[in-house]
Amino acid sequence: ITGATLAAWTSDWATNKPAGIDGKLVILQADVGEPGSEYIAADNIDVFTYHATEWVETRSNGIVVTKSMVPSGQVMDAFLEKYNIDPQNDMVVCAQGTGGYSPAMRAGRCWYMFRYWGMPKGRVAVLDGGNQWNATANLLPVATSGSTPPYTGTATVKDLPQLNFALQATLEDMVD
């Protein structure tokens, strides 16, 4: 999504949220932005901005230990609890924070993680550009502090109707 779209959402979530979204807006930044543009502005009522880094997990299939895999169901459930995300009702925006290649890749990993675990594609988006770039272009309001994770979520990936495990090929898939 563009910074202008996110700015409309953050300015009045109740009025401007996408059709079919009943919950809150959760913005997950891969990095804290540059000084003065650390976080995307949030009201901490309907709109929350967190610095999150739990996009990957080292996992073993019993034969091979692989770094940077999609988090397991248990780790994903802990993530949903930490940030109080309800994947069936909330909108999640994966943002870079600081612009550049590495934060952009991590924001993409955020999107991939949610899609892998079955979050509907209309409920997860990636922000185009870093905080400072969007703020300098007058596309997005920024703040110097983010939201505090509440650790109150109750959602689980077990409740998601459509898991997308086909997004990740297993070793067996590769051999076949």
How does this structure look, described?
It is a single chain. The protein has helices spanning 3-11, 13-16, 73-82, 101-116, 131-136, 171-175, and strands at residues 25-29, 39-40, 47-51, 57-60, 65-69, 91-95, 124-126, 142-143. By secondary structure, it is α/β, with parallel strands linked by helices. The strands form three sheets. The chain has a four-stranded parallel beta sheet with strand order 3-1-6-7. A two-stranded antiparallel ribbon has the order 2-8. Strands 4-5 form a two-stranded antiparallel sheet. Strand 4 and strand 5 (65-69) form a beta hairpin. The longest helix has 16 residues, at 101-116.
Helicity, as a percent range: 25-40%
- In the predicted model, the low-confidence regions spanning at least 5 consecutive residues are none
What's the total number of strands? 8
What's the rounded overall pLDDT mean? Answer: 89
Query: How many helices?
Result: 6
Spatial order of strands in the largest sheet: 3-1-6-7
Radius of gyration: 16 Å
* Structural class label: alpha/beta
Largest sheet properties: 4 strands, parallel
Percent range for β-strand residues:
15-25%
Elements, N to C (H/E): HHEEEEEHEHEHEH
Q: Give the end-to-end Cα distance, rounded to a whole number of Å.
A: 37 Å
